[in-house]
């Protein structure tokens, strides 16, 4: 025991994380349009392979609800055999970025963009899984999903099978919401697992006409990418999808690492090594044709709160997933699909930062606008383009704020008019600056003081010098310019 002083704590924590991860791995896979076993494969790789690597010692990796929408779009657009190529390329890019020490730079991504991304993903997940909860087929786009909900509700009310399916999904959500209000002893069992077990039991006892998970077997589900799949790498759309996977998976993992670091007092995350660990895991998942992985805050926080002390807990959780997939695959076939839909509706709701948006609106309305626009763009356009729109808005806002300049006019009614320009004068602020200066009287001396400027770009300097040359009327003393 001296060699493994924390084995007891890590062993207990690993069981908790396994019970949390199991329904989520299966649910994310089904919602992504791939065999349920592939979700378990990604969880196994995230636990055993990524779990052994350095980076963050306590955060746990696996298939994430945040990538569900993107994976579903990729599978629909390029087919399941190509998913392995996308995930493999994502992993190799992450390995390269980690080797180039770019991991820490992901922390510079605007939190508003990340929150907007998660909110948009949450909305699409909720809309899509409401159809799944009723046993109906969901439309392809996010806009169609939301617009079609009233018609889907009417269709569901006219079908006994759909109502039974909805009841299972609604019951699952109710268990998840109410589970936190139970005594702490009861909460030792993860809410997601309890909800799935109760939903499965109810469906079996009442003989409800609900669809269940389709089981293919672990080895049959693993399909390494073929040469034909690699040949599609020249497709522009596929390259854009790979970039989206890389950006979102990396950002979500590193933001999760920052959040997990705040939950414990152990070693801090090395962001470059963690990015390489995620890349190695995704490369393995790609070779197995499985789902992409990220570090997942739900599993990671469960790991920390269960008392984990070292990376042994996350490795062991991967071992338990492997044993379950190998020894009890038939158990998956008993799980009702609406129960998994309920879990994902609950997960999607938690992705939407309602309190964060309200807080931003009170103090930083520009940031709140970025959250909303990013989320709406993801729902109405696509995941990749929505994130790009959010990043573009964030950069534009930063550029606008960085170019903040203050022009103060002091006019005592007699003598020279004094103008003091301070801050950062760039071409973005030039129109407003010139409007103010050109409104000054031309028949009185003007003194323009630029010594308060931190930055004066070439366009601004040229425009100010031109204004100074042309401003004064004939017979009036020329503008006096005090250079920065």
Question: What does this protein structure show overall?
Answer:
This protein is α/β, with parallel strands linked by helices. The chain folds into 2 domains: 7-352, no CATH class; 405-482, Transcription Regulator spoIIAA (2-Layer Sandwich). 63% of the residues lie in helices and 7% in strands. The chain has 21 helices and 6 strands. It has helices spanning 7-31, 36-52, 68-78, 80-99, 111-133, 142-147, 149-157, 160-179, 191-205, 218-221, 227-231, 236-261, 271-287, 297-305, 312-327, 337-351, 354-363, 365-380, 383-402, 430-438, 458-471, and strands at residues 61-62, 294-295, 405-410, 417-425, 446-456, 480-482. Strands 3-4-5-6 form a 4-stranded mixed β-sheet, with helices on one face. A two-stranded antiparallel sheet has the order 1-2. Strand 3 and strand 4 (417-425) form a beta hairpin. It is elongated. Residues 7-374 form the SLC26A/SulP transporter domain. The chain crosses the membrane at residues 12-31, 78-100, 112-136, 156-179, 191-213, 233-260, 280-298, 318-347, 368-393.
């Amino acid at each position: 025991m001296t060699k493994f002083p924390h084995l007891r704590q890590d062993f207990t924590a690993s069981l908790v994380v396994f019970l949390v991860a199991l329904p989520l791995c299966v649910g994310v896979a089904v919602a992504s349009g791939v065999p349920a076993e592939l979700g378990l494969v990604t969880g196994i790789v995230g636990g055993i392979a990524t779990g052994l690597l350095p980076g963050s010692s306590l955060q746990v990796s696996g298939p994430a609800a945040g990538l569900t929408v993107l994976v579903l779009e990729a599978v629909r657009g390029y087919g399941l055999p190509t998913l392995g190529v996308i995930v493999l390329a994502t992993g190799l890019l992450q390995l390269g970025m980690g080797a180039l020490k770019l991991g820490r730079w992901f922390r510079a991504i605007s939190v508003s963009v990340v929150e907007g991304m998660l909110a948009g993903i949450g909305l699409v997940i909720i809309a899509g899984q409401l159809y799944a909860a009723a046993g109906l087929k969901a439309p392809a786009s996010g806009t169609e999903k939301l617009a079609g909900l009233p018609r889907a509700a009417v269709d569901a009310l006219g079908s006994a099978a759909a109502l039974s399916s909805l009841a299972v999904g609604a019951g699952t959500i109710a268990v998840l919401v109410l589970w936190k209000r139970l005594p702490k002893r009861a909460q030792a069992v993860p809410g997601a697992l309890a909800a799935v077990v109760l939903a499965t039991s109810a469906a079996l006892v009442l003989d409800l006409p609900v669809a269940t998970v389709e089981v293919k077997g672990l080895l049959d589900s693993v399909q390494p990418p073929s040469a034909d799949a690699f040949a599609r790498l020249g497709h522009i759309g596929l390259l854009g999808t790979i970039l989206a996977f890389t950006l979102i998976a990396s950002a979500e993992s590193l933001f999760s690492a920052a959040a997990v670091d705040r939950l414990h007092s152990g070693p801090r995350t090395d962001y470059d090594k963690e990015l390489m660990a995620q890349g190695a895991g995704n490369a393995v998942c790609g070779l197995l044709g499985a789902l992409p992985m990220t570090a997942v805050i739900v599993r990671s926080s469960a790991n920390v709160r269960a008392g984990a002390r070292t990376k042994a807990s996350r490795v062991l959780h991967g071992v338990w997933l492997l044993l379950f997939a190998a020894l009890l695959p038939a158990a998956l076939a008993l799980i009702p699909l609406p129960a998994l839909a309920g879990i994902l509706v609950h997960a999607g709701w938690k992705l939407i930062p309602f309190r964060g948006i309200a807080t931003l609106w009170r103090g930083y309305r520009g940031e709140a606008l970025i959250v909303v626009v990013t989320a709406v763009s993801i729902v109405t356009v696509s995941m990749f383009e929505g994130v790009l729109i959010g990043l573009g808005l964030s950069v534009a806002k930063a550029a606008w704020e960085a170019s903040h300049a203050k022009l103060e006019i002091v006019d005592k009614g007699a003598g020279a008019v004094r103008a003091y320009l301070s801050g950062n004068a760039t071409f973005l602020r030039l129109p407003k600056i010139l409007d103010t200066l050109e409104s000054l009287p031309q028949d009185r001396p003007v003194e323009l003081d630029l010594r308060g400027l931190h930055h004066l770009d070439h366009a601004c300097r040229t425009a100010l010098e031109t204004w100074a040359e042309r401003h004064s009327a004939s017979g009036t003393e020329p503008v006096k310019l005090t250079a920065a």
